[in-house]
Design the sequence.
């Protein structure tokens, strides 16, 4: 069993991964942020380091999926490989921050990997407005995120919505983060857990909270 949590920067993916992992007593796979050798450089010079960063994430996420499949255990995953391929890399390319040569190379690598993987049993998408994202990013105070621009977050949000509207890899649960305070409100968290339980037991094909 494999649940993955998707969402823009600052939407609460890591927090919800931790809370659900603790509730279900499942293992958690987190996005490799602290040990990522490219992240600081990327936010200082996106054009120079975009390809390196995206290939690093692609490799990291693919290894996570392989580990999950081999383990036979139940996992909650913080961010998916699809977000890298359908949102972050195309966005960098469209902004002129990744060359067409690098982007084409990246897509070839992803397409090869995609032949060997399956989507999660349930995808949880954390939908958040840009103002909420900015507030959350400022609250956690990561130095390398100080230079993230509003237009960058806005472009990512638009791509997330386009991707989610056509998502067909498995079951989907959408959570509106602007109106859900699962980190501080036990009632909101329980509401999410109830919806997740319903999805995992096949009672509904899609729910929105």
Sequence:
């Amino acid at each position: 069993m494999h649940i993955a949590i998707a969402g823009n920067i600052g939407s609460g993916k890591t927090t919800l991964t931790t809370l659900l992992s603790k509730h279900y007593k499942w293992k958690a796979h987190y996005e490799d942020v602290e040990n990522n050798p490219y992240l600081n450089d990327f936010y200082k010079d996106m054009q120079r380091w975009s390809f390196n960063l995206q290939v690093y994430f692609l490799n990291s996420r693919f290894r996570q999926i392989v580990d999950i499949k081999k383990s036979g255990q139940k996992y909650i995953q913080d961010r998916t490989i699809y977000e890298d391929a359908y949102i972050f890399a195309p966005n960098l390319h469209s902004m002129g921050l990744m060359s067409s040569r690098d982007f084409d190379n990246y897509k070839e690598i992803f397409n090869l990997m995609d032949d060997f993987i399956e989507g999660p049993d349930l995808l949880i998408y954390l939908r958040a407005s840009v103002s909420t994202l900015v507030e959350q990013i400022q609250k956690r105070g990561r130095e390398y995120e100080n230079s993230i621009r509003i237009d960058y977050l806005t472009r990512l949000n638009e791509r997330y919505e386009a991707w989610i509207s056509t998502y067909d890899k498995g079951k989907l649960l959408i959570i509106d983060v602007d109106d859900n305070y699962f980190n501080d409100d036990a009632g909101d968290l329980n509401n999410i857990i109830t919806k997740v339980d319903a999805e995992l037991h096949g009672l509904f094909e899609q729910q929105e909270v």
